[in-house]
Amino acid sequence: MNDFMMQLLDTYASFFDWQMWLNVLTDPVSWGLIGTLVGMEGLLSADNALVLAVMVKHLPHKQRKKALFYGLLGAYFFRFLAIGIGVYLIQIKWVKMLGAAYLAWLAYDHFFRKHKNEGEEMEISKKGILMRLFGPFWGTVISVELMDIAFSVDSILAAFGVSQQVWILFIGGILGVLMMRGVAGVFLRLIMKIPELESAAFILIAVISIKMFLSIYDIHIGHGLFFAILAVIFGYAIGLHYYRKKHQHETANM
User: What is the pTM of this model?
Assistant: First the structure.
């Protein structure tokens, strides 16, 4: 327990290590990893922003923005806690194995299991227990906080598969959450235009799962190879989209 607390304090102290800041911000590889985390979060979580918008739509217009803002602060606080604890836990082999298995299950679930209709909207009942306990506004804020945490679990775990450097995880997490809230519409339009990108993101999750599993046995995928795999996955997805589009156009003109 003492070792855990000491490492936790060391991790949080490193957030104020300006040399680490400098190393991360001047390292192209770090920015490549951060970009990977941000892009993955954006593709996987674009529709989550719409879910949150639906959750607050019963509030007056001014309170909607406040509820989402407080939810954003809560998401950052949760990321801060999760990174600190996760840096310690991810060193434990059985935790890493469970994490790799969970990421593999996410990819499997996307490709092989039947999903509910994505058009179904999510409503918050005004008579729900949180509404009765805390009132319409704060009950909604707490609901948004809980939903943010649920959305964050997958992306945080995947982030640890990409890197275990604290500042890379932190910057990637901050920009990723902003990406989900601020430009979710851009990613949604991108996915609607090139649907194969969503599947590419889940293939990346599967690769990260393999990467995490191999690291248990001290087999590490280098940054160069990882970025090459990343480029192949998304390059193939985009190429496949335009091939299908061209094939459909030729079929329609026959």
Answer: 0.69
